[in-house]
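step: validate -> pass
step: tokenize input -> pass
step: predict -> running
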Amino acid sequence: GRVAAVLLTAPLALSPILATPAAAQLVVYDPTNYVQNVLSAARALEQINNQITSLQNEATMLINQARNLASLPYSSLQQLQQSVQRTQQLLSQAQRIAYDVQNIDQAFQTTYGNASMSASDQQLIAQARERWQNTVGGLQDAMRVQAGVVGNIDTNRAEMSSLIGRS
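step: predict -> pass
step: emit ->
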């Protein structure tokens, strides 16, 4: 619930991204083009999800090592901090993609809200939206895992600093 709200209310600071001519050219209000835009956003988000999963696995491995060793070598600690930072960057990248899709969606609704579309167009649109929703679901899972793996990142940084102190 809250994760979806976070995704769909991306900060307003992102709006300049959409003001660029390149981004403006992306938004052409044609059902086929719309479907392509949504699917390419879904693919980009799937790639980010995969990267996040792999970073989270790495972080989990390092955290488990730390438990076994009672203190973590500085190099592993740096690796863990980088992994946490990289995951945060990927999450904000994912948020931007979600924000772009929301804008494409609104523009599409404005243009085609009342238009009658062929059954095949309607089916394509439904399938693209379903894939997008599933991908966002995957991102939400990744965010939950991130919360579990790393806990509150500020708290975690404090723990990491105390681990450095001990090692």
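step: describe -> The radius of gyration is 20 Å.
step: cleanup -> pass
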